[in-house]
Each structure stands twice: as structure tokens, then as C-alpha cells.
Amino acid sequence: MTNHVSAGFLTRANALFRKNLTFQKRNIWSNVRLIVIPFYLCLLLVGIQVLFDTQVNNSADNRCGCQCILKNGDGKCERKSCGLQYSSIKQAAFCAFPNPPPLLPLLHIPRPETRSVDGSRGSCRRRGSCPVTILVTGNNQSLGAILSRNLLRTSFTMNSSDIFLRNLAYNVLSTTSEADYTNFREPGIYSDLPIFNIQPRCKSTPNLSFSFRQPPLKFYKEVRCVRGLNLWRNNSKEINDEIYKGNYRQGNHEEIINEVATAYDFLDTDRNNFNVAIWYNSTDKGEFKMQDRRVKMVRVPRLVNLASNAYLQFLRGPGTKMLFDFVKEMPKQETRLRVDIASIIGPIFLTWVILLLFPVILTSLVYEKQQRLRIIMKMHGLGDAPYWMVSYAYFLVISTLYIVCLMIFGSAIGLKFFRYNDYSMQFIFYFLYINLQISIAFLLSSAFSRAETASVAAYIYVFGSGLLGGFLFQFMLEGLTFPRSWIFVMQLYPGLSLYRGLYEFSEYALKKTLNGSDGMKWKHFSDSAMDEVFYIIIIEWFLTLIAAYYMDRVSSSAKYPFVFLKNPFKKSPSPKMHSFRRQGSAVSIEMEKLDVIEEREKVEKLMLEPSTSHAIVCDNLNKVYPGRDGNPPKMAVQGLSLAVSAGECFGMLGPNGAGKTSFINMMTGLVKPTSGTALVQGLDTCNDMDKVYTNMGVCPQHDLLWETLSGREHLLFYGRLKNLKGSDLNQAVEESLKNVSLFRGGVADRPAGKYSGGMKRRLSVAISLIGSPKVVYMDEPSTGLDPASRMNLWTVIKRAKKHTAIILTTHSMEEAEFLCDRLGIFVDGRLQCIGNPKELKGRYGGSYVFTMTTSSEHEKDVEMLVQHVSPNAKKVYHIAGTQKFEIPKEDVRISDVFQAVEKAKSNFKVFAWGLADTTLEDVFIKVARTSQTFNVFS
């Protein structure tokens, strides 16, 4: 039953949706494996966390030390006690400190090899005898000199080898060791480095040792004297320049190190006002890692005490002192190392996990393009809008299931990255990004022609984005000196905007792990920079979707991608080319045969008075491919004028390269004509191709099928595109399968990938004819078929052409003569002749073909025999005693030829002879040779 109403948008979308659904059912396990990937990746993260907990978090070095105090008879420990007294120095930081011990107030000084020196005494660095420099400035130089002298004591006070903090408070004690993250582990006390006492001059007294006992810890330290040098500078600018001038090179790394211990600017200090600014060294020489969120302690209290004491002595005399006995931290409970390694590596790891969908989507889109599956769907009526809507929705559903499974699996197996952050916020972030990712895949699919190349590029993007985020972008985020504006610019790269969002989730999960604060909530939306990331993703999604649709339209229409950037004042070459073709036609019209001229005149009348009786009308159609690599332009189709009516099968014959495929490509919208007009059902193929597709069927030269879909499912899909529904659809599918002999033995429900070449060819023909399209193009439809199947297929095509205009290309003269109402022979892009098979044979084959085989010495006798029968006969073939002649029909009667042969047999031996009428193949060869010869000499 024929349905002449074109399928609407929803009908075509429903057809594609059903086809995709069936296709996914065939590939259900591939989809399941794709969606389950997050589960395995989350398990991998959990495994990494368990390994880290075992080897690091629960390591004996990262918890307070313990000792067994009671063992049973088997030697096993029944009771153990933990505390500071059982701990190493490293373990002590994790112990409880209900009563923290008082610790020495130390001053940080440069190492001997980095201390400031003047040019004349540079050798002191090699000997390690450089003094510790303290710079002083202020508005009142005389007052500054007094305060400078009061900073350091002239003697070292000790009572015994076992001294108390009060004794040490009279001295300026210092250390070259770097500060730690907490004073519980002051390296100046715990390390093996000595403690230095800064004095104006060091006496020849021996180095002293003392012990500092604060139960249960006991330390033995060596105190050495180091000379302190107070230097006056005129202003703070000089101090600032001197502090930051030193470059100290160690190996291949250059570090900026303060060469002075400290500097004081007493500003406007006088007897009534004490005002001081202090410079101090907080450089840690690169040991502090950006990813370590802890901050090292700074030894500032002793610096303040020195300045205060100096000013107090200035006011009250040397007998007045402000003693600084000790520093002490707040009490704390016993702690354990808690590092959530899954959250730390979460940003780079989950960037890879989420981006793994990108190669899948891009490869799928490019594969349809590479296999020309999309174009064949479009030729059968599937518009761009239904394709985009259904394909986008499909990838969105798969991606959404992917991230939902990721969140569920991650939360179920205990990953804090997912548990500690708001689920709704996470889902919206992932959902927005997968939409952007799908849009990018659609955009980039226009740039690739092979799925393998697209897959390689996509995986480079995936792993490159993770590596850029983890090893570059994160350092810029945490660095205080990197401009925030450049952070914003870098986030315009989609992979880094994803990384930034995951990094923020990771930060809040780590904070909750370490100090119990809230994870990422909606109240933190603005403070966490997630608002910036959301806005970037949404805007890029919108712009990318528009660009993707534009590029898709451009690539499908073969237009210049940036047509809006072309020079508006540059003249178009099209009119000139068009006039050239017209002129060329006028010059060569004398050489055209009468039938071609009549066809051209017929087309010109149809163009003036459009008629619905002719389904296809081509007026002076030309296609020129531009020259490349120094070769001239290729004239594929030249001045073709053709009209094909409904119910007619027009056959296109011609040698390879004659222009047949280029003509079919122009008519099916694959390429645009250089000039001329082509109308299908009155619609221009250049402007209304989408409407043309709804009434068109195509059987391409190469079968374009889905390997996993069955023959029945192919026909159901294309039938729906032709607006067949319900019982009409099922009936049309059944009849199509029976007509092409794919109905019996369960062949119809077998995947097309298991079909033989002939079965695929028959299915392609059935697809082109389903729904009774108004126009059908068949490119060598019977190629690869056995004789019985070929004859059956010809019968189907002949039956289908009753209400359909068919254009058929073939190299089989038998097929052309059986199917075609009219034939056109193409040579070098030109239509050389046109007419029905009998007319062509009568016009170009008005002769008999006489063949005779004799021995070589009787060849002259054969020639004389033929000349006697017909003086106008022409020899067309001669090899090894076999000769072939063309004898004009008007010159002889068949009986005369038989009589002459019988007479010749009595004079010499005839091995074989024959007389045949002209075949279509002879006509084809004759026209092709004559046309090619003319083209060579013209």
C-alpha cells in the first residue's frame, strides 16, 4: 500500500529511536560493561586508599608509641600502654599532650655558608666563621645605635650541666634548622644540630654542653658561640634591597635566601613612643610542598623580645630586663595521621574517569560518518533535526547512567570524595559537563573522517587533560603569585574546567576529613569558585552546540565553513563558468546526435512549463573537480540535459570514469553541481534537498548496513522513515523480504553481518524500494548475484517501476536491455546517445556481424568472399585466421550469405563461421570508441 504523505518530525525521530534501541539491544553487554566501568575504577580507588591506610596512616611511625606492659604465658601481649614515654621523636607528634612542656624560645639564623659578608672577607663562608648579621634602621640614627647595642648580651650564663629555662632566658639562643609544622617537634631541640648563642664577640671559652630534662623527655644539646654583627642602614629601602639580593645556587636549583638573621626598623621610636617593624626569614628552601595544607611555624617571638628588651634597657638602664622564659603550645589529644589519598588524587583520577566517555561518543559519531550510514539514512528521509535530537538524547542517557553509577558505587564503597559533598551539587555539575562533552564530540566529529584517527585524538585529549590538571593547573591554583585572571582563562579549556570542579570537591572532602568541617554544600557555591566553573560550562555548552550544528550543516552541504568571512567585494566565478558551459555547448552542438539534441530541447520546454509527469529533470548539468598537484580540472559531467518520467527506468551506460557516479552523487545530494539545475518532483536539489530525500530511495554501489541489525529490522526502520505504520508497515516489510528471497529459513531475522554478499545486495535493493518512493537511484544493483537471484531481482525492479522513476547504472548489457525503458551512453562526462534499446541497436547497429575462421593461407579468399557478398562490408577484427566483418543490412539478404558460405566450403576448408545481428554491447563499444576518438582529436 503506497503512502504519499511524507513522514513528520516525530515519526522520523521515532523511527531512529526504535532503530537505536534495537541496535543497543544487540550490543547490550557492551553498554553494561561501559556503565560498570565506574564500579571497577571506584574499587581501584578504594584499593589505593586501603593500601595507603595500611602502609602510611596506620604505620607505627604515624601514631603514638606503645609498649606491652603485661604478657600472658604464650608471650602474647595482654595489655599495653601508649604515651610520650614510649614514643620516638617522630611518634611524639601524635601523642596526647595534656601538659605540653615548655620549650626554648629560639631565633632562626642563616647557615654559615649563606650568611651575609662583605667582599673583603668572603673566605669566611668556606671556613664557616661568618658572623650573624642584624640590620637596623630608623628615623633617629643615634637612638638606633643605642638600641642596636642593647640587642645582644656580652656573656653566656650557665649554672650547671643541668640547667633550667630561667638560666637560658638571659641568652640569645638560635638555630640554623628549619621550623616544623608544630612546636611539639621543634627541630632546634630534637635535631642533632647545635644551639648557638649570639654574642657581640666570642671569647676563647670552650663549647658547653647541657641537658634539658622535662619528663619524660631528656635532651642533651651543645651550645656554641656565634658572633653577632649589628649594622646600621640609612633607610628601609636599603634593608629591603639587601635582604632580597642574595641568590644561592644548589645543584640545578636556584633559591632566594635571606642572608641576614633579621632586620629592625625602629621608625619614629623615642622615649615616649615605641614603634618597630621586624623583617624575619621564613624561607623553607623548597621543602614545603604545595599540596601539603599544613603551615610551618615561624620563630618570631624571640625577635619581638629582643627589640622590647633593647628599648626597656634604653629607658630604665641595663639592670632592667624582660625575661622570655619559654614557649608553650596548647594541650592536645592523641591524634593519628588521617590522609584521604582517594580525595587527594581524586581530581586527576576522576577527570580521566569522566572523560573516558568522550572517545566512545566521538568514535561512534565518526564511525557512522565513515561508513556512510548517516548519509544513507538522510537519503531515505531522515532529517538533521531528528538525527540530532535522538542521537544527543541517546548519548545523554548513557552518560547520565554512567555518572549516576559512578556516584552510587563511589558512595556505597565508602569514598569520602562522594560522601562528604552534596549529592545534588555533584550531580548537576557532572550533568552539565557531560552535556558540554557531548556537544564537543558533535563539533569535532565534523573534523574527522576515520574513526581510528578520532579515537587516538580523543584519548590524547583525555589523558592530556588529566596530566595538565594534575601537574600544572593545580600548582597554579595553589600558588599565590599566579594571576587569578589567567586561572579563569585556563578554565575555558573544558578539561581544566572539569578538573577545577573536581578539585573543589576534593578540597572540601579533605577539610572535613582533617578538621570535621562541612563538605561542599550549596552555601559554599560562591566561596568555592564553583559558580565560576558552572557559568563557564553552561556558556561553553550553549556556544559549542551552536557551532557543532553549524559545522554539521556546512559539512553536509559542502559549503565553505567560514562563508561569513569571505570578501563581499570579490566577484563570484560561478556566472562566468556557467556562461562558459553554455558557450561550449553551442560550439559542440553540431557534433551531438539528433537524439541528444531532442532531449535537450525537451528539457528546455519542461523548464519553461514545469510538469509533474516528469519526476527528474536535469538542465545543462555540469560538475568540475578542481585541479590538484599540477593537474588540470577534471570535467566529470558536461552539459547534461535529461528528463525521466514517472514509471520509467532510465539506464546509464558508460566506461569507468565516464561520470555516471558523479551524476548520481549530484542527484543524491552528496556533491553540489558546478553549474546547471536538477529538479526532482519539481524541487531543486541545491536548495530543497531535505524535501527531496523524503521521496527518494537509494541503492548505493557498496552496501551500507548495520552489522548487528537483521534484514527485517533494516526494513522496519526505513519503512518508518517513509511514513509506513502498523499493518501497512508489516505488510510492506514481509512483501519486500519475499520479493528479494530473504524471507525463508529465518534469514530475515539473522544479523546482516552474517549475510553473504549477494544477500546484502538484495537487502539494499529492498531498502531502496520500500515505501514506494517517487524516485529511486540504483548503482549496479545486481553486482555479485547468481543468475537465478539476478533474474528474480530484475523482476522485482521491473514491477516496482510502475509508479517510480528509476535511474540505474550498470555494466551488464543484459540487465540494461531487460529493465530499462531508455538508455543513455556516457563518455567523458557527455551524453553521447539516448533512446530505448531497440532504437539504439537500429541506429548504431544497422549491420550484420559476419565471422569466419580458416587457415592463414585462405584469409584473402575470405576477404574476396565478403567483398563479393557486400562491397560496403568493413573488417573490424582479425587474428590468427579469424576475421570479423560488419555487413550493412541493406546490402544483403541472409539467404545470400548462406549460399556464399556453402560455395566457399567447396573451395577451401572453413573451420567455423557465424552471422549475428548487432547486440547492445556492440552498440556500446562502437559509441564509446567513436566518442573517445573524437575527444582525442578535438
Automatic annotation (TrEMBL):
The chain crosses the membrane at residues 34-52, 344-367, 387-415, 427-444, 456-477, 483-502, 533-551. Its main location: membrane. SUPFAM superfamilies: P-loop containing nucleoside triphosphate hydrolases (SSF52540). GO terms for cellular component: membrane. It is found in: Membrane. Residues 616-853 form the ABC transporter domain. This is ABC transporter A family member 4. It comes from Cardamine amara subsp. amara.
